[in-house]
Amino acid sequence: MAFYRIGVDVGGTNTDAAILNTAAATLHEQDLHRDRQRGVCASSKTPTTADVTSGICTAIVDVLAKAQIPAHEVRSVAIGTTHFVNAVVEADPCRLNKVAVVRLCGPYTRAAPPFSDFPPRLREIIGGPVFYVDGGLEIDGREIAPICPQQIEDAVSAIEKARITTVALVGVFSPLDHGGANEAACKKLMLQQSPDLSVVCSADIGSVGLLERENATILNASILALAKKTIRAFCLAMKNLQLKCPLYLTQNDGTLTSAAMAAERPIQTFASGPTNSLTGAAYLAGLDQRSITSRTATQVLVMDVGGTTTDVCALLPSGFPRKAPNFVEVGGVRTAFPIPEVLSVGLGGGSRIHIDGAEGTVSVGPDSVGYHLTQDALVFGGNTMTSTDIVVASGKAELGERSRVKHLPITVLAEARAGIKKILERTIDAMKVSDQPVTLLLVGGGSIVYMDALEGVAECIVPPHHDSANAVGAAIAKVSGEVDVIEILEGRDEGAVVEAAKQQAMQAAIERGADKDDVSVVEVEKIPLQYVTNKAVRLVVKAVGKLATPAPGDSAEEHLVSWMSTDVDDSSFKEASEVETVVPALISTKHSASLDLDTYVPEVTDQVWYLSAVDLEFIATGTGVLGTGGGGPSYLQYLQCLDWLQSPDAKGRMRVVSPDSMNDSGVCVFGSWYGAPSVSGERIPAKTELTTAIDHVVRLSGHTHFEGIIADEIGGGNGMSTFPTSAYYDIPVLDGDLMGRAYPTMEHGTPYVYGHPITPCVVADAKGNVGVVLKAESNRRVEELLRCQCVNLGISTAVAAVPLTFDIVKKYCIPNTVSQAWYLGRAIHRARRSKTDIIKAIFETTLGKLLYSGKIIDVKRDVSRGYTVGQCTIAPLSGEERENMDNQVSAETRHLVIPFQNEFLYAAYIDPAYPTAQQVICTVPDLISVLGQDGEAIGSQELRYGLRVNVIGMAAHPLWTGDERGLRVGGPRGFGLNMEWTSLGPYQAPRSVIAEFNQQL
User: Fold this and answer.
1) How far apart are CA 991 and CA 626, in angstroms?
2) CA 492, CA 44: separation in Å to the nearest integer?
3) pLDDT over 80 (residue 712)
């Protein structure tokens, strides 16, 4: 007996449905010619309704009627919807609930409070009270502090008093908590006291990276009531349609989750639409029955052409889409979801065709008539020429009345077709990861715009039911199980750890409904954590299997309908004004968005530069460029600086002065973050560590006062670590640093290279632990002793070297590097805003050289002595890609390799045919930075296959290159490389913001 599955995809304009005979769908490749429909019995398209459910019902009724299939033969229904994410994107107070946040963190994480980077409007709607309580883990699994039941009880009482019913529970390093000793135990205590609370544990939502995981957890909690209400409506609708079968929702990664799970974790269904289209297209084309890697073309792209836009995804050999970069914004909130990488361009069936009145040139889009196509297009009696008119006039499709477009000149048709072809080719090139030709799967209602052969496309497949590929993708979606944890491999059999994770992932897939005979592991990813000495790695394992066939009449959702009928009602949706609670008074983090960047002037008065939020935004971008692959991300430190702008703990304003303005006999202190960025991004600092280290080292050195502070390194997050300290002590930051870039060790500070002492040197954590290196035989030995203490304190501490007088600092600092970061950041933001050449803008600010433009094709990583070491290989862009890039590009045809030890060490050309023969073009101490297409720096830990990048080089300060002492420590031999320094060119002293913008009162 045949049985059927229904897939539904709810878009912003249309709701698509398809019904699938799963027996026919499992035909082997040799049988595909007998059923080109791949088991699709019928498909339907209907307008999306405001309540979503009505449109779904209409589409399901329609496909059942078309296929003449009784409801009792349907064994499952899978729905993909954007309903939940729309509530967040639209910041709808009627559909979002207030969320209280409880952090299990001990004394840590105060430096970046919850909701720190939420847009103001969304924070106003969602933001509830925040509680910091004992709990959380160190990276090695030790407790930061035991959970305190009394603190939990007090927090729950306050949450109840605020009339809040949803809680985001976030424990430091909860992905390490395999036994549930933290978040799970705390949730149990909370529900014992208040059973009506909805508590979302962050470990169920995301992986390492506290702020991003917490943001996702908060968003998930805010839409819980909406999700339960909506899914309850889906279940009741199925009941009314006599569909006695389980309901599933499609997830961001293209797999299924049960309705019950989706009701608890709706955020995992946010971006299922593009994935459904991709998997549906691959299925309809029969690629699920053929090896993708065995095809002539080694790359498979799916192009979904709608009325307004064209979306392109890349299909991996696993059958799933290529993932997007690390961070994804949802409604302006930074999160870390495994969602597909989708490139969207303004080309569709409704794209307007423009003819320049003066020159008569023809252009296509990007504007579109959208859903007015059947009223506005020429072939339908309208007055607007669209891409559909070009298709019909060219004889490539029969739509409307062809006679209405017979008057179009051949030259207009030719130019418009050439424009459409060029847009499609550019889009394909942008998604390719090699020079190999591609197999293109073309789907979507607007796919008729594909009229001419495309360069680099070996085969174009337009499968049956291509205009309902998204619904087919939902119907055939598989079930996954994923393990995403941090494991400490030191002293353990790595193979056994990985195998255990594989088995755990496979079992998770089976428990979620996968056929146990079909489950297999499709992805294993090991990501070493930077600077960590205990071989800690993030381990991501994914197993996938087809949906097990349920027994006839098995309605797994009957209990769900009953449960939800008592669990959710409309009163759970309140306007923001109805809830009395405390919203953290934080300012927006996107301050430059509403400014005219060309006219913005920093506040510099009487030779003192007072920092604003906009200045911090520019500096954060600039310090990333100067980080040369290391230094840790600037984003978290940027948020901490924003918090300090209005902190009650600040005794003065953040400000920057020239080193020359300080008296030679005055005392300068140092203080920066020391350890692993992967730890500080999870166990966020407490605000107190830097000042604790500075206070102790000042006392040890015998000083009674100090007048200023300078950064140890300008590169990465440490380039901004001095600003909160400036506000706390009411002292200025000197416009400069001790490296002019980022380096991996304390001994790379220029005063220490030239013989001045590091010791006594202090490390401190947030618990009051302070470690001291009073004296050591060498600077390298100081580094070794400091690192041992840092590891014992959780691999993330503050460090402060012995204070020095300003005469020494002036002689050995790299001047004006805070200004340099500001100018770099401003140049990148300006170019991005005006869509002009980012590389050219950078070099107008800082003298440099474009070393390479290309795509990353290989990244190798390992951890050695606490450092992330490895090599990145970049291949050149194709000729078409070079022509279509707005920025400068290099014309080099060889590959480029960049070895790194946290920071990038050198860059060399290689011929793939002779990989051992390298032509070194840039080495440390000169700066090598890898930039993404938006101009933002990409750290060595963020490098990944397929990224399109520009590699730039900038000359180091003469303190590094003009003396053998500088080259001995900071040059190639200081990193064990058997090569000499290769000069990039002359050094250009950075401009001074203070000198350029000073106003005398």
Assistant:
1) 15
2) 54
3) yes
What gap in Å lies between CA 244 and CA 298, rounded to an integer? 43
Residue-wise pLDDT tens digits, 622-651: 999 999 988 878 999 999 999 998 888 889
Least confident of 515-519, 534-538, 992-996: 534-538
Cβ neighbours of residue 582 closer than 8 Å, sequence gap 6 or more: 128, 129, 162
CB 311 within 8 A of CB 276: no
For residue 266, whether the previous peptide bond is cis, meaning omega lies within 30 degrees of 0, is no
CATH number for position 130: 3.40.50.10800
Nearest to 476 by CA among 18, 915, 855, 891: 18
Say how far apart CA 725 and CA 655 lie, in whole Å.
10
Residue 229: how many CA atoms within 13 Å on its side-chain side?
A: 19
If asked whether residues 695 and 682 sit together in one domain, one would say yes
- Cα separation, 23 vs 281, in Å, equals 19
Q: What share of the chain is helix, strand, coil (3-state, %, to 5)?
A: 35, 25, 40
Are 856 and 938 in contact by the 8 Å Cβ rule? The answer is no
- Mean per-residue pLDDT, 230-234: 89
pLDDT tens-digit map of 121-140: 899 999 999 999 999 999 88
Q: Are 997 and 601 in contact (CB under 8 A)?
A: yes
User: Do residues 635 and 748 both lie within one domain?
Assistant: yes
pTM attached to this predicted model: 0.84
Domain range for 356: 294-462
Can you read off the two tokens belonging to residue 964?
Answer: 């053998």
User: What region does 252 belong to: left with phi over 0, alpha with psi -120 to 50, or beta?
Assistant: alpha
306 and 424 both lie in a single domain: yes
Q: Assess if residue 612 is contained within a domain.
A: yes
**Is residue 62 packed enough to be buried (19+ CB in 10 Å), middle (13-18) or exposed (0-12)?**
middle
Which DSSP helix (H) or strand (E) runs through 552? none
985 within some domain: no
Q: Is the pLDDT of residue 200 over 50?
A: yes
Contact 305, 449 (CB under 8 A): yes
Q: Are residues 71 and 19 in the same domain?
A: yes
Q: Classify residue 741 as exposed, middle or buried by CB count within 10 Å of its CB (0-12, 13-18, 19+).
A: buried
What mean pLDDT comes out for the span 712-719? 96
**Amino acid present at 200:** V
HEC per residue, 892-922: CCCEEEEEEECEECEEEEEECCEEEEEEEEE
